[in-house]
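Researcher: Re-running this chain for the archive, since the previous output was lost when a drive failed. Same request as before.
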Amino acid sequence: MPTNSSIFTTRSEPLAVDTQRQLFLDDHCIEGSHGLTRQLHQPEKCGPVLRPDSEAGQVALQSRSVPQWNSEKSLWEWWYWGSWACAPYGPYHSTAVSLTHYATSEDGVHWEKPELGRYEWKGSKDNNVAIDPADGHRSLYHIIRDEDESDPSKRYKALFGTHDRKPMVSPDGFTWSPVDVADMPSSDESHFFFDETTRSYVALVKRGTVWGRSVFLETSKDFVNWHNHGVVMHADQVDWDNRSHRIRQVVEDERFLSPPLVDEENYIAETYQMAAMPYEGIYIGFVGIFNPAGAIPPPHMNHTGINQVELTMSRNLRNWRRLCDRSVFIGVEPWDGEAYDTQQALLCGRPIIQDQEIWIYYNACRFRGHKELYPEKYWPYFNDLTALSLAKLPRDRFVSLEAAEEGELLTRRLLLAGSDLYVNADAESGELRAELLDAETMKPLDGHSLEACVPVTASGLHCKLTWKAETATLPRQLPTRIRFNLKNASLFSFWSE
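Model: Regenerated structure tokens:
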């Protein structure tokens, strides 16, 4: 989509560099470079952390919320949808209904499903159903725990409704009261989080446009008065051109599960949904790109295809830049009878920072389309269709600047606030050095030349740069530039402490 590139490269004043890390998702801190390429890094998939209770008749799990830390209980809490098989209903003959369930964990990996005893389901209250089944399919869509809320009755905030979203509040996540505000227009996908940087509630909702499924931005300072900023992300010609290639990749590679209908129509790719997170002064978006393969005939409708996650970034939540030639960040896996993410991977919501890792909870789905479209050998897997999975990424390591041999990066004018300079880098197969320059004369500062820099020759998330001269201290509040020299190395971020 078209963007105003000037918002990414404002250079009128020196950039203050302190403990907030400077990443290289865009050129905001870069004056120039040569011999370097940008490389997207995929997270490590850790597999499912919550699976459906198949023995009880549950066929799938999904969520559009991530685990919430409860400081009073010292536990992670997770509200998620558990799908139960049922007789066909509705205009598309849907064969499952999704109820909101509740789980807890001490570590975010191993989960327990406490018996809540709140609602009868399948003839018993011995279950973890958290919202009245009478409220319908996926009634609670998003939930966050607001630790800063002064009113305990509003500790939890949620958006209810499968189509359109109704703001509601709760003291405990189970008993809800509506907020006196109009419903927020949305179709069946959206994301919701609290932005600590602007002290705002943020909803990224799906609505239709001429580009197909598109993402609209809604924000609120008080969870009552919402402002619609319009469409902020949609697919374009590049996505449409990518669609046929990505469908061919899974159709022609026998390791993968091919969509059951591939009718060779020239469909448009669409933005299925987009989760986002504030991160080190920017926003990172995780856009789900839907690549349709074939139209499902009535009564079920919709399309077969694959959903995968790509990265995008913004500095204001409104203008977004797609990253690294739209490389796949979380993609589908080959079919082995074990993996769940064989045709669809979509984020549950905003990733969580855990120490020096970024934890990404996502929905992993084996199939897209009803059972009868697939060969009979796959039918038993429709009783265990989707799971909630976890992927982990080391801190900052979304995108690197790479030097296959030797490369150089010159920063824009900086004001270093701290007494030490750090990098997140991987130089196990080479080395990384840096020199500090007078921002105007471009001459190395005393004791901070490239030759005097002690090379970084390891991989580390928190590598301190040092120079040989014992008296070499950072020039605090003096306009400075940094020249990084990389040999067979990767640079992810830098900052000052």
